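Annotators were shown the component list below and the corresponding predicted structure, then asked to write short factual statements about the assembly.
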Amino acid sequence: MADQDLTGAVLVVGGGIAGMQASLDLANSGYQVHLVENKSAIGGRMAQLDKTFPTNDCAMCTISPRLVEVGTHANIEIITNAEVDSLSGKPGNFSAAVTVAPKFVDPDKCTGCGLCAESCPVPVTDSYNQGLKDRRAIFKLYPQAVPNKFTMDRKGVAPCYDSCPVHGNPSGYVALVAAGRYMEAYEAAVERNPFPSICGRVCVHNCEQNCNRGPVDSAVSIASLKRFLADWYVREGAKAGGAKKRSMAAATGKKVAVVGAGPAGLSAALELRRLGYAVTVLEKQAVAGGMMRLGIPAYRLPNEVVETDIRHILEHGVELQTGREIKGEADIEKLFTGGYSAVYYAVGSWRSGRLRLEGEDLPGVSHGVNFLRDVRLGAKTAVKERVVIIGGGNVAIDCARSAVRLGAKSVDLVCLEANDAMPAHHWETEWALEENVRINAASSTKRIVARDGAFAGLELLEVERMSFKDGKLDLATRPGTERILEADELIIAVGQGPETGFAREGGKIQLTPRGTLVTDPLTGMTSWKGLFAGGDVVRGAASIIEAVADGQKAARGIDAFLNGRTVEPEPVENVVKLTPEDLKTRKVKPIERRKNPMISLDQRKSGFAEAELGMSEEDARAEAARCLYCATCSYCRRCEDVCEAKAINFRDVAQKRKLEVGAVVLAPGFDLTDARKQAEYGYGRFPNVLTGLDYERILSASGPFMGHIKRPSDHAEPRRIAFIQCVGSRDQDHPYCSSVCCMYATKQAIITKEHLPGAECTVFVMDVRAFGKGFDEYYERAVNKYGVRYVRTRPSMVTQDFRTNNLSLRFTLDGKGWREEEFDLVILSAGLCPSELSVRTANRLGVKLNRHSFAQSLPFSPASSSQPGIFLAGAFEGPKDIPESVTQASGAAALAMELLSKVRGTRVTERAFPPETDVKGQDPRIGVFVCHCGSNIGGVIDCAALAKRAAKLPGVTFTTNLIYTCSPDGLKNIREKIAEHGLNRVVVASCTPRTHEPLFQRTIREGGLNPFLFEMANIRDQCTWVHANMGEATETKAWDLVRMAVGRARTIEPLYTQTYEPKRRTLVVGGGVAGMTAALSVARQGYPVDLVEKSGQLGGNLHKVLTTAEGLRPAELLASLQKAIAGTPSITVRLNTTVAESTGFAGKFTTRVTTAGGESTDLEQGAVIIATGGNESRPATYQYGEHPGVVTQMQLEEKLAHEPAFAGSLKEVVMIQCVGSREPGRPSCCRVGCTESIKNALAVKKANPGARVAVLYRDIRTYGFKEELYNEARAQGVLFFRYDLDNKPVVSNDGCGNLAVSARDLNSGLDISFSPDLLVLTAAMLPAPDAQQVGTAFKVPLNLEGFFLEAHMKLRPVDFASDGIFLCGACHSPKFIDESVVQAQAAASRAVTILSKKVMEVGGVTAKVDPEKCASCLTCVRTCAYHVPRINADGVAEIETAMCHGCGTCASECPAKAIDLMHYKDYQVNAKTEALFDIKARVKIKAGVS
Amino acid sequence: MSEHEPRVVAFCCHFCAFAAADLAGSMRLQYPPNVRIIKLPCTGRADIIHILTAFEDGADAVFVAGCLEGDCHYQRGNLRARKRITMVKRLLAEMGTEPERVEMFNLSSAMGGRFAEIATEMTERAKKLGPCFLGKKKEEVAV
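Structure shown to annotators:
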């Protein structure tokens, strides 16, 4: 394959611990990594955990430095909120299509300050906290999340928002009302609707018609909430400081005339003012408001309400001229010639519809719109006794209810429609009926009855059917049903239209056939250029809110027109419609809608006082809280207001990316099985039944109860806690074992006991599967030290006492019938299953899944998928714990690097820096940059004053304060000021150095300063955030912290790293499957290997294991490895060779090896891999070695393989498990024994189905998919009997050569006995005998059982604490062949991170010995946890910089004070307290000495 | 001043205690503003000299906070620190001041709440003990 066909980049899918590990190995070995994560932050499941087993390490402590390393790595690009769509191309050269979901926050601008989340009113169930806590709609996944960026949970817009013509943002202000933030809610409500008081009362509120809550009970009372806000503002607004004024554009100098002061005209006027135009509104009537003021009766909309809203508009500088009628084209023309650049025409529809019946103009007859107007203007103050209204719309109802209030004795309403088909709002009709209006529905008026030349009544006729055909009325009446309705006054309210009679045909203004004006739908411009129109004059009679929308549209249209621009249509947003399914998932429960109170009926009927009153604050908040937040983000846009970095982008859309990569590592993780499906346990129904992950969050100090163990129902401390194992594992649906649950439950039980020593923890378990390294000791500790009780059963049911919420478990025990026990809290150890995402991704990439939908790996290569070039890591390939995931991830990285070895380093970028300024001999010139962090710091203390104050500190040359120091502008500022002021130290007073120091150090390095000339004052996380309301004390503390930082800055010096080139060669010790695989992998990655094997042949246990449980043949693997090694000239195989001693450090080791003949050779290497293997032990019990019928499993396997007739000869076989394991002295599990015995048991059964095979076991530990083998064995009739250490089986020999085995079966409580032909002992696995000696040679530690001890059980499973030395295979702990293979590949990957380094860098924060002061007392030698200090040839201590970890313990312990930790010398630490207490520095520092 | 506002100096390790103090911030936990944190790579570097200097300079109480025992990122720096604190306590007693003015704490980086508790506890303790005369003496000398 030619090099140009390969791409030196790798796609890693999944940012959990496996994905992170693969990314780091790859990036640290010279590959570019694109890390695609589906969530908004990396960290995966591990970031959710409290502690990890078996060391009880804090999960966050161990993962957090890893997160930062991935997040700041120059060659890892983290792509969050993303998913892989497809993959094309071939191994070595793929093209991946990735979709990145919109985040609505620009990650380049977001500084992670968190003000947005504080401003967000929307509570969202926090999935990171397993729903036990709320977060906000704009959020960071967890406090330590990487990338430290916020994301908005926004699924589109709510239907209320969408259906409002002006998008008046109901969802936003409703959310803010629910949060009790009325001023902000008011501001959100008026942003796009200048008539909150009016629309809060009389709006048609389409928003409510479309509310997703409607189908559940009834819509949220949005209009009433708007009214609540408007009324609140009138009452409290001024006291609360008044609403924030919206920004106004600079004056354009242009004038616009608006004709008509109705909703359309006034809205246009306001919008035009905001756009910088001078606006004059010309109104025909004496009062402004149009229909709002004159068309709607005062009992619905009092004058002062209308006036309030209009006043707020006029306050923006809109000029209003009343009594100005603009009649026709000539008048309009005059406006243009009079200096107006554009005219907005919005005169409404004041022409009343007519019945065209004789008598329509009789005295006593009026028309609806005119009638209402006259009432409002005071021209009409009384009606006659009997009033009849024709019409069924809202105007008709208004007329009827007005007539009641004007003193009518009887009011009749006549309409064509049936009762339920009236166009009036139903609530209006109901109110009318309450006020004794009689409704004569389905009645047609045949004629108007006149008497004495005046109106006297109507002749009515029943309507049989009515409909509209093509807009025309189609009416059928019932002849013979005529009747006379006597009345004194008639009001006809049958529609209205605009008065556009002035527009002649052929004139400048084009009309529709209905007589309305024709306008452009986007701009509102009429056929007359510069004349715009809207509202009823365009639409015909329509709603206020539509008129407002028209006015705003026209304002934008006018602005565009006057600037020669075009108007873009508003983008279409996804409207979130909740289906009944969605509502069910959300578990929406009906809550009664709060109603506005009404005044009494008598009050209503006797005058025009407002009938409906506003809501109380309590009702308003309760009503608002009914909102479902359908789109999650309520679009209130508060975040946009508070984000000073301007990072919020509501227009963000999904992005498609194409990534060119050479290989893919899939680590998409897993899900927990849905515990709800185990309905008998009550999860989701009983509040005190939790899953293991839920409980993990409860235990976590950063969880919902801050680490205090409380049960959800009453927040009481639980005393009796049950853990139920195998929930969603080892069952019909999940016939595999989830591998981790026994241990995580044990861990949780231990942690529980640590938190609550009085608690009783009971684990209900079938088998305790503590098969990993150190797990059995952990389990023993749980039992013996913590008193955790393990009960061997699977409970059948959990019931709840509904008074106490206590839980009752029902189970059988030891074959002795049913029992019941009560608990306060039940934890379900839910199993692991593939996630939807992982299955989807696998399907898209063509990666084969197994029958449980986990990824199918290749035989003897767990990290290989079915697709060449795509590799597997983590629980995606099968349930596994953290170290196995990390191991597999490194293994997957190794396979990717084998494929791409020729293009290593071709796609990486190296940061280039300018030469460093020499600051030697210079006095300190310190620059202090005080960060506001938006208002995180700036809102609490006075940053400008702090910066000014710092300027007076000795050594300070320059100070400033910046809104966001970490923003690109802020960083540029630092670089510029370094140059401008010749700064030689930089202090940033902002957030935490843990996340931001690397960034600022890089920045000053870019500015030419040594990165160690930097100091930070943490005035946010450790000051303003924790002392938010402490006034002066907070200021003082910030000032102290800045002084301390400056004080120390005066003393710090540049530090330089030394570099050396690593030896690009590896030594592998041990030639078994692990050693061979590691050697091959390193060689394939391009580095030569010395493979040292103590025996005369390669292969180790591969020679002894003849088949695997999966039916594979290890011999075939051995043959292929041997062939590959023989064909790899860069591997030097050294047989019959052992390691004598080794010196050096990472990158530079020298190891002496000795052949059997005593010949010694010094080999040099950059990294060492130890793979010395392990062996089956030879038991000393159960007649082994005394009776020929007693063999070990491996011996049985050999017999089965080599003597075909042997199995057939066996009639009764007994196997005893845990022989020499899990006992005092050798407490650990042999891991492979259960599977091996079952494999052999099945082999016997297969050869001789009649044979009786019994397995005497303590716990069956067929973890993962091996569980299926166990199921198979039981199906084939293999018998399993459980014993324990107190009841060990007894084997005897009757003296005639017959074996007898007797035991007690704990499952049934019965005594059993056998007379087997063959007794098979499952013997302990031991480390190779030379492990101790190899450990000494490399100075690496072993555990008590003689296995090598890795650097960190969880995250560094194949590393030793000494850098550059790695381990794999059975010398780490017993394991299966495939596990050794992947661990070997992992060790190879880790080794290559060193071999591939251009140079090794050492130095920085490391310890140095002053040989003059050293008294060779050996304190440092004894103190150092890494065994670094040694006494050199000169007889003084020496610390090898390359090996020093920089903890500084030796410096603190040295009695002669001969050791200094660089950057933390005594005077550099003391400088802080000296500065804090304003003490004169004790040590005079010469600047720049180092 | 009606009540003595003590000044407490905290030496915190980078990986756990300092991170926990940051987490207390992220969680917006409020605690008395008397504590001033000095970051060290590991409490293994918290030297007796640093602690005594802090008292001499004017601290009323000092605490050293490192990783949980067994969880030290540098394996056992925190265990050495604990020994030194025992030593400092003895020295303080010999000098005639209360040994409770200095304390060793262990916490994980996820224990933001615990950090706030410790800060509160040490502030309360320092309040109860009143001003430390070691610092006073220094001031007199300096003037």
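Statements collected:
1. Chain B touches chain A through 62 residues (CB under 8 Å).
2. Confidence is low (pLDDT under 50) at residues 138-143 of chain B.
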